[in-house]
Amino acid sequence: MNTKRETNAEKKMRQLVARFLKGETSNADEQRLYDYFSCDEVAESLKEYQEMFRWYAGLGGKRRTRLMPIRKWVVAAASLLLLFTIGYGAWEYKNQADEYALYEGSYIIRDGKKITNLRAILPELKETEREVAELIENEGWDESQSIPVI
């Protein structure tokens, strides 16, 4: 009796394979085929299709066991790289915002025009700061006064 059930199951799978090869199967039918051929207990008369359906299912024997862990590591590494990049970008943005906040309201007058664009004037402001620091260091500083003694 057990062999009759196997024969009926084998007959149904053979019909399903024939429908698959004609392009008449649904996604559920194809999943049944992939599941059936992915196990090691395939009827002897259907073994010739096992490699094909394993390939369709993405199993591929040895390749699956080697590629899946590598793919997981690549995904994990890419995720960490993405998180690091986002974190670094946010940190850099905060530092830049803090730096610009120091110069809030700063401006320079060039050729009679007032320039308030911090990106345009920041190099000149930093150069002025450097010159003042150099004056303080080289010329001395009288703490009772608000300007360097020259």
Structural description of this entry:
It is a single chain. This protein has 150 residues and is mainly alpha-helical. It has five helices and two strands; from the N terminus they run H-H-H-H-E-E-H. The chain has a two-stranded antiparallel sheet. A hairpin with a 2-residue loop joins strand 1 and strand 2. Helix 2 crosses helix 3. The termini are far apart. About 3% of the residues have low confidence.
Please identify the structural class as seen in this structure.
mainly alpha
Give the helix proportion (percent range): 55-70%
For the residues shown, what is the average pLDDT?
79
Shape: rod-shaped
Strand portion: under 5%
How many whole angstroms does the radius of gyration measure? 37 Å
Question: Got a strand count?
Answer: 2
Poorly predicted parts = 60-64
Distance between the termini: 112 Å
Instruction: Please provide the ordered H/E string of secondary-structure elements.
Output: HHHHEEH
Question: What is the number of helices?
Answer: 5
What is the topology, as strand order, of the major beta sheet? Answer: 1-2
Largest sheet, in brief, is: 2 strands, antiparallel
